[in-house]
Amino acid sequence: MHSRIVLVSLFSALISCTGVAKRTTAATKDRPVVLPPNQSELATGCAKEVESLPNDHFISHRAYTLSYNFHHRVANWVYHRLSRENLKNSCSKRQDKFKADPELTKANLPAVSEKDYQGSVTGFDRGHMAPSADFAWDNDINKESFFMTNMAPQTVSLNQRAWNNLEDRLRLWACGHGELRVYTGPVLKPGLNRLKSCVSVPEQFYKIAVSYKDGKYKGIAFIYNQTDDKDPYRERAVSIREVEKATGIDFFKDEFSPAVQETFEKEFNWADWDGTEQNCKACPQNP
C-alpha cells in the first residue's frame, strides 16, 4: 500500500508542477468525430497523389528522427531519447506553433499543414508522437516537436487524457532510470479512414520504452486505442514483440544485435518499472 501511495503522489506531483506536460488545446471536451463521405474514392485519389513516393522516408531533426509514410501522411515511427538530465532543465514554455515539416517543403515534397485536421473541423486533435514536454529543455527544439510529421489524428479522450497520462508516466520512468529510448507511432494498415487532407486516421497507437539499468536492458510497450480514456496503462502494456507484430517494424535491428534484442523484446516485467518513478524536474514552474 505504501508503494502505491508514493507512486500516486509522484505522478500527481509531476502533473501539478510541470506546466509543459499539460495540453493547451482550447477545447477540452470531447468533440464529435467528422470524417468525409466516399472514403473509397478518397483513398483512391490519395493513393494516386503519392504513388511514386516512399512509405518510409527518413527525416532527422535535432532531437528526434522519424520514418514518414507518404501514403498515410503520418509517421511510421518517431524515435527520441528521453533523459533525466534534460528533464531536470525542462523549463521552456510549450511553443504551440504547428507547421508543415520544412524537411518536406524545402524538398518540394507534399507536406501536411497545420490546418489539415484541426480539432474544431474534424473532432481530432493533432496528437504528438514525440511529446512536446519531452523537449522543454530548449525553446527551438520544442518548436521542432510541432512539425506536422510528428503528429497523427487522435481523439480528445486519447490525446488529452489517456495518451497524456502515459507520456507523463514515461517522464517519471526516465527520471528514475536515467534515460529511455522511445519509439512512438500509429498502427498503420490498409483500409484506414482518411481526412479530406488524405491523412489516415489510425485506430491504435503504440509507445515503446527501453532503458539500461542495473546492468541489463529493460523494455516495455503499450498499444492504445482511439477510444481510450483516463489512464489504462496497465491494461495496455505489451511486449515490444507484440508491437513489432502489429506494425511489421523491427525497431532495434540497427541498434542492437539479435541476441541483445531477445533480452528485452520478448517480454516485460512490471518489477523493472513499478517503484522506479521519480520527479526530477528541478526548475521553477513554467511561466
Please, how many helices?
A: 10
**Helical residue percent band:** 25-40%
CATH class: Alpha Beta
Strand order in the largest sheet: 1-2-3-6-7-8-9
How many discrete domains? 1
Question: What is the architecture at the second tier of CATH?
Answer: 3-Layer(aba) Sandwich
Low-confidence stretches: 1-21
| Counted beta strands | 9
String of helices and strands: HHEEEHHHEHEHEEEHEHH
CATH superfamily: Extracellular Endonuclease, subunit A
Distance between the termini: 35 Å
Q: Examine the coordinates and then state which fold CATH places here, giving the name of the CATH topology.
A: Extracellular Endonuclease, Chain A
Largest sheet: 7 strands, antiparallel
| Cα Rg | 18 Å
Rounded mean pLDDT score: 89
The portion of residues forming beta strands comes to 15-25%
Structural class: alpha+beta
User: Shape, please?
Assistant: globular
